[in-house]
Amino acid sequence: MTTLVTGGAGFIGSNFIPYFLDKNPNTTVINLDKLTYAGDLNNLDEVSQTNRYRFVQGDICNQTLIDSIFTTHKIDSVIHFAAESHVDKSISNPDSFIKTNIEGTYTLLEAARKHWGENNQSNRFHHISTDEVYGSLGDSGFFNEKTPYAPNSPYSASKAASDFLVRSYYHTFKLNTITTNCSNNYGPKQHDEKLIPTIIRTALQGSTIPIYGKGTNVRDWLYVLDHCKGIDTVFKKGRPGETYLIGGNNESTNLSIAEKICSILDELLPKAKGSYKDQIAFVEDRKGHDHRYAIDASKIGQELHWRAVESFDTGLQKTIKWYLSKYKKNTV
Ligand SMILES: Cc1cn([C@H]2C[C@H](O)[C@@H](COP(=O)(O)OP(=O)(O)O[C@H]3O[C@H](C)C(=O)[C@H](O)[C@H]3O)O2)c(=O)[nH]c1=O
């Protein structure tokens, strides 16, 4: 088996590839990544010398390149992570989101149709997506696979469009597609721009820890390795054409995450005076900021027996230690 993993140098992809190679000893992975600002090959050091792993630098919108990868490497399946993912960037500059997330997904689907043929149920195309396609929840209720799409940001709209393209290739061409929509991931290797790395980095720098608005927005936090296990499970056992939501069953406001991380840092790396919490500051809110995301993960639980197992406390400890070492402050 040869699996094309797109975006494997990104946060979730670079956690997924080592896990996937380890769990699937007869599989070779071709990692196609453009190496934008968000990709980092250092995060794949542990597999770079493995003969079942190859890296190709390139753009998923480049049809000629994708064709040649399918032919040269005899691709059997695709796991498609590559995406522009940062909501704030999609608000200030949506262009690359439309190109990569929509056109890139289309280019990959077309290559799969061309190389595998229509009515093909053996070669799987697994699309990785987000719960943000469902929009924003109030203080109660959960997203499930039947929730109507209502994306609010250019990022989530571009992901929604890509989900619909994937869906259309299943219905129209009988490509063996599957989509997973996950909640907020955290863990080692995440780009500095996202909330949890931002809190850790700014705390250690002694600067302002920026919390948008009042800090009352809620996200459901999923440890990245739990997500990797969920993807591997759905990839192998999920039903063609289906969508599975993958959540951490772990809701938290942004402010309480910042306070939690500060408390852990106060213990691991006490400041000479005061607490890291003193650095928390409320800053201008994100435009159109979604209030709450929360996932009902009972479909994947009941059908495929997957559930998130990492507790937020242990997951955060591991994450913070990884960043302390990254920022060369590892006195832990
Ligand atoms: C960077 C930053 C963020 N925030 C707030 C904004 C959000 O309410 C929350 C998380 O923000 P972040 O940008 O880390 O993640 P989301 O906007 O929820 O989106 C993330 O999770 C989904 C599932 C994806 O699909 C996205 O690709 C991924 O980026 O913290 C702050 O308050 N301060 C900050 O400095």
Which architecture of the domain at 2-187 and 222-249 and 294-310 per CATH? 3-Layer(aba) Sandwich
The biggest beta sheet, please?
A: 7 strands, parallel
> CATH homologous superfamily of the domain at 2-187 and 222-249 and 294-310 - what is it?
NAD(P)-binding Rossmann-like Domain
Percent of residues in beta strands: 15-25%
The level-1 CATH class of the domain at 2-187 and 222-249 and 294-310: Alpha Beta
Sketch the topology as an H/E string, one letter per element.
Answer: EHEEHEHHEHEEHEEHEEHEHH
- In DSSP terms, counting alpha (H) and pi (I) runs of 4 or more, how many helices? 10
Question: Any overview of this molecule?
Answer:
The structure is a single chain. With 332 residues, the protein is of the alpha/beta class. The protein has a domain at 2-187 and 222-249 and 294-310: 3-Layer(aba) Sandwich (Rossmann fold). The protein is 40% helix and 19% strand. The chain has helices at 11-23, 63-73, 87-92, 95-116, 154-173, 195-205, 224-237, 254-268, 298-304, 312-326; strands at residues 2-6, 28-33, 53-57, 77-80, 120-130, 175-182, 184-186, 209-212, 218-223, 243-246, 251-253, 280-283. The strands form three sheets. It has a seven-stranded parallel sheet, with helices on both faces. It has a three-stranded mixed sheet with strand order 7-9-11. Strands 8-12 form a two-stranded parallel sheet. The termini are far apart. The model has no long low-confidence stretch (mean pLDDT 97). DTDP-4-keto-6-deoxyglucose (T46) is lined by residues 85-87, 130-132, 183-184, 194-195, 198, 210-212, 217, 219, 254, 286.
